[in-house]
Design goal:
By secondary structure, this protein is mostly helical. It has one domain. The chain is built from 13 helices and no strands. Helix 1 packs across helix 6. It is globular and about 60 Å long. It holds the Pfam family ABC2_membrane_6. This is ABC transporter permease.
């Protein structure tokens, strides 16, 4: 094909670093554009998060009013309010639920064509999910945060490192959430239909990630076990505790470092599961 550059940029150890970054960025941009087309869903989702934000906020304020010293779990009223409203916005950014693309393509057999593409499914889906998260930051995150600012007094961080540390923690939460969701979807390689596993994930992740209530309300041994033995507190609890400065600076950094460890472990585990599935893949129906 004279005069036509038919080369395809791929993410591979054999490709230049710049080419791999360009490809990853293009995939992330495609994820951003995909979710930017769902304008009505974005508005409806943000409205729903605001409604549930009021419900959760008043419940936790009632808990604080009845607690000894008005500090349940070590949070004062402004910290609890900030925890709720930032959490409602961060929920859409982390995106713990609703993603079934991989499981659906495994069930229909379309995953076979994905395996022929130059970019591995794990990498392409991760890039697209980061694009989705960026779109959520610019849309879904803002609405609940503004509602909290207008109707309540939010906590203002006093340490200069808190906001950048929160940003890093939120990014790690997105990656950790993606790793969990990928593993949940990947069960379809063996089950062919992952809806049961996805339902269990939906029911358990919100509670154990700190969405339903701050995990610090639980006994200390339960909190420590969840934080060390599972990646779930790192999806919401850690970034929110960092923002409201629930812990000392050293502890904050340690929690974010634990997030980073879990993010690496989850991505590595997802890679191993994907490679194992490719060796034993049986496309349903053919």
């Amino acid at each position: 094909m004279s005069g036509i550059d038919a080369r395809v940029l791929t993410i591979s150890p054999d490709r230049p670093f710049r080419a791999s970054i360009t490809t990853f960025g293009a995939l992330a941009w495609s994820g951003f554009r995909r979710y930017s087309t769902y304008r009505q869903a974005t508005i409806a989702g943000s409205f729903t998060n605001i409604v549930f934000g009021f419900l959760r906020c008043y419940v936790l304020l009632a808990v604080a009013a009845g607690a000894v010293g008005n500090r349940p779990g070590g949070y004062d009223a402004t910290q609890l309010v900030t925890y709720v409203w930032v959490g409602q916005g961060l929920l859409a950014v982390v995106g713990m639920w609703g993603w079934t693309d991989l499981a659906d393509r495994i069930r229909t057999g379309d995953i076979a064509s994905d395996l022929l593409r130059p970019v591995p499914p794990l990498v392409s889906y991760l890039a697209a999910d980061l694009g989705r998260a960026l779109h959520a930051v610019l849309t879904r995150f803002i609405g609940p945060l503004l509602a909290g600012v207008v109707f309540f007094e939010l906590y203002r961080p006093h340490r200069p490192q808190t906001v950048p540390l929160f940003a890093i923690s939120a990014l790690l939460a997105v990656i950790g959430s993606f790793g969990c969701r990928y593993l949940v979807n990947a069960t379809a390689y063996w089950l062919h239909d992952a809806r049961g596993v996805q339902m269990l994930w939906t029911l358990g992740s919100g509670v154990l990630a700190g969405l339903s209530f701050p995990l610090r309300l639980l006994p200390e041994w339960a909190v420590a076990t969840l934080w060390v033995a599972t990646p779930l507190p790192g999806l919401l609890q850690t970034p929110l505790d960092v923002l409201v400065e629930r812990d000392e600076p050293v502890t904050q950094v340690g929690l974010v470092a634990l997030q980073a460890v879990w993010a690496v472990v989850l991505l590595r585990l997802a890679h191993v599961v994907q490679r194992r599935a490719e060796r034993k893949l049986v496309v349903q129906g053919g």
